[in-house]
Amino acid sequence: MAVATLVFRSFTRIRVALFRQALSCGHLNGDVEPEIKSGKSISPSALDRLGNVDFHTLFALAALLRGRSVSRAAAQMEVSQPAMSRTLDRLRIVFQDALLVREGNHMLLTAHGKELLPIVEKLLETTAQLAGVNAPFDAATQVRHFSLACNEHIQLSLAPSLLTALRTAAPSITAQFSPLHRSGAVDALASGELDLCIGSAIPSAPGIHTSLLYSEAFVCVMRKPRHTGGKVRISLKDFCALPHLDVSPTGLTLLGELINRTIRKQGGSRQVVYTISSFMAAPQIVSETDMICAIPARTARRLALPDNVVVAELAFEAPATDVSMYWHNLTHRDAACDWLRAEIRRALPAR
């Protein structure tokens, strides 16, 4: 049974005293904020508005603010989209703020909505502790939408096995993968826009948790040598002598810089002729040119290779990158997100 349901059945109405404490810094607009700032008691009209917020509505508010989507919040709360829209209308009256506004095809939090999200999350955590709730996540029956960010090469190596497992174990779970932008990852996790990031070198920040998934060495995608038998290996001398095609999904050339640092320590350097954004395009380009391409080993195993292209091992100290999971305190004790992180570990392909 969902935590929201357990709390809702345990308490019929939220305690105004708890809500008043959470909002004591002036996070209500209208007639409440000036009274709090002046030290006066909250007016009856303000208390009436707060009194209309029960635990179920508070969980709906958290789902709306975190997911920034009426449809996703409705799925999470197991109600219809029109019902969630009506809940949002009531919350806008309670807080005298739009909370969510449409910008093109997306919904954005208002400044007041951004202020409310951490307060509501903390309040729900406190009420769950008061209720003694520690319910497991039932993946087979519960509805949940996850937002993840990771770049193409990680999706290639992880998503097939992960999504296959989820379709079997959790048919009502949905997920959206988006490109990982390191500069905005921390803010996206902290705002609830993302549940999880998977990648490398995301800046450390307060409230961010990290767990290493694997360290991955690079291999070389190249045209098949004329005379070869068994595994193909490429020396540092040949690796540096041949022209290179680099892949940079985000345009930051972080993988290329890692390769350069590693071979520089061994006295080598290379010539990068072209840089593209897609790993999937690399084998075809290599097959029709004289270039080679260094890519992560797990990714190479997922690529469709033309007949004249081979994956060669590096016959020298190969560059390697650490791939980790990153998440925020908002989801650290979320049973559903904890389950997802465990499923990701189980879905990792063999080396």
From TrEMBL:
Give the GO molecular function terms.
Answer: DNA binding; DNA-binding transcription factor activity
Domain of life of the native organism: Bacteria
Segments forming domain HTH lysR-type: 53-110
Record-linked SUPFAM superfamilies: Periplasmic binding protein-like II, Winged helix' DNA-binding domain
Return the Gene3D superfamilies for the record: Periplasmic binding protein-like II, Winged helix-like DNA-binding domain superfamily/Winged helix DNA-binding domain
Question: By its UniProt entry, which InterPro entries does this protein fall under?
Answer: LysR-type_TF, LysR_HTH_N, LysR_subst-bd, WH-like_DNA-bd_sf, WH_DNA-bd_sf, YidZ_PBP2
Keywords attached to this entry:
DNA-binding, Plasmid, Transcription, Transcription regulation
Q: Which family does it belong to?
A: Belongs to the LysR transcriptional regulatory family.
Protein name, per record: Transcriptional regulator LysR family
What organism does this protein naturally occur in? Answer: Cupriavidus necator (strain ATCC 43291 / DSM 13513 / CCUG 52238 / LMG 8453 / N-1) (Ralstonia eutropha)
